[in-house]
Amino acid sequence: LAYTQCSTLMELFVLIVGAGPAGLATAACLSEHSVPYLIVEREDCSASLWRNRAYDRLKLHLAKEFCALPYMPFPADTPTYVPREEFVKYLDRYIERFGIQPRFCTAVESAAYDVGSKRWAITAHDTVTGEEILYEARYLVVATGENGVGRIPEIPGLESFPGETIHSSIYKSGGSYAGQRVLVVGSGNSGMEIAYDLATHGADTSIVIRSPVHIVKRESIRMGMTLVKHMPVTMVDYLIVMINNFVFGDLSRHGIVRPKIGPFLLKAKAGRSPVIDVGTVELIKKEVIKVFRGISEIVGNEVSFEDGKESSFDAIVFATGYKSTANNWLKDDKCMLNDDGLPNKGYPNHWKGENGLYCAGLSRRGLAGIAMDANNIANDIVSVADHVSV
C-alpha cells in the first residue's frame, strides 16, 4: 500500500508493540498501576498465533496454575491442561476485564530513540488504509513474541521436492494427510505432537530427531515445577529423569537420546523445553512412527538422511521453530536483542534495556515468564517515572 501523508503525531507515555499474551499481560499490569498506554498490533485480532496459527489438538503444555496471566487465574472448572480454544476464550475475558483496546492492523516500521527529546520515535502504518502513523513514547515495550515468523532450514535440494512443504504454524490437522507419507522435521513439542496427530489420522509418519531431547510425562513436569521452588534444581532433575526412565525405558535404541544436562537446568540455561509426551513415544516404539537422523539432501521425493538411509515422502512439515521479528524494526536497542531477536542478557535480567526500552515474552519461559516480565516492566516504569502523565 502507498502511504498517505500523516497530519498528526500521537504522543504517548507507553507504547506496547504486540497484542499477544505478553502485550496483553503488560497492558493489564500497567492498568493496575493507572499507567496510560497504547497497544498496537499488526494483525486484525489479538493473540493471532493462538487463534490462527495453532494446530487443532494443541493444549497448553503446562498445568493451568503455571499459565495464568497476572491478576486473573483460570476459572476453577477449566481443565488442568487448557485446550487452545479455552485459552483463546480466557484471553478474550482478560481483554474485557482490563478494558484493553488494541489498535489492530497497525504495523510498526521503525522505532528509534531520540536523545534530544528522550523519547522513542516510532513510525507505523495502517495495513488497511495505508495511512502512515507517527508515535512518540517515553517508554517502549517489545511484546511481539518469540514466534514472529516460522523458521525453515536450508536443506540441499529442498526446492526440488514436488510435494507439499509447510511450516508447523500452517498445520491444522492430520485429517487431510491420511494415506500419505509425511515427514515431520523437528522433535520439539510441536513436532512430536504433530507426528502423533498425523499417525492417528492414518498418515505414514516419520520424524527427524537430530539432537538429544528430554521426553517426559505431563504429571512429572507439573511435580517438578512445584518441587523446584523448594529443592535444588539438580535434585529435581535427577528425580524427574529417574521417573521418566522408568516410564519410558531406554529410548536410545529407538533413536531418542537424552541430553546429559537435566530438563529443568537445560531449560534455565538454554531455553530448551522438554517434550511432553502425548502418546508419540508408544507409536515410535511400535514403529508406527519411524525415526530418522538429520536430512543431508533432497532429490525430488527422495530424502537422504545423515545415517545413510533414504525414503520417499509426499509432504514435509517443518516444526523447526520460529524467530522474532523485532529486529526488523527496532533500532538503537543498545544490544538488548541478539540476531534472533531474543534478549542478550540472561534471565532474570533480560526484560530491561536502556532509555525506557523493555521486552516482554522473549525469555523462552512460556506464559509464566510472560507474567513475570509484565509485572517487572510495570513496576519498573512506576518506580522510575517522576509522575504518571504524558
Automatic annotation (TrEMBL):
SUPFAM superfamilies: FAD/NAD(P)-binding domain. It holds the Pfam family FMO-like. InterPro entries: Auxin_biosynth/cation_transpt, FAD/NAD-bd_sf, Flavin_mOase, Flavin_mOase-like. Residues 1-27 form the signal peptide. The keyword Protein transport does not apply. Its EC number is 1.14.13.168. Gene3D superfamilies: FAD/NAD(P)-binding domain (3.50.50.60). It catalyses: indole-3-pyruvate + NADPH + O2 + H(+) = (indol-3-yl)acetate + CO2 + NADP(+) + H2O. It is an enzyme of class 1 (oxidoreductase). The keyword Signal applies. GO terms for molecular function: flavin adenine dinucleotide binding; indole-3-pyruvate monooxygenase activity; N,N-dimethylaniline monooxygenase activity; NADP binding. Coiled coil: none annotated. Belongs to the FMO family. PANTHER family: FLAVIN-BINDING MONOOXYGENASE-LIKE PROTEIN (AFU_ORTHOLOGUE AFUA_4G09220) (PTHR43539), FLAVIN-CONTAINING MONOOXYGENASE (PTHR43539:SF50). This is indole-3-pyruvate monooxygenase.
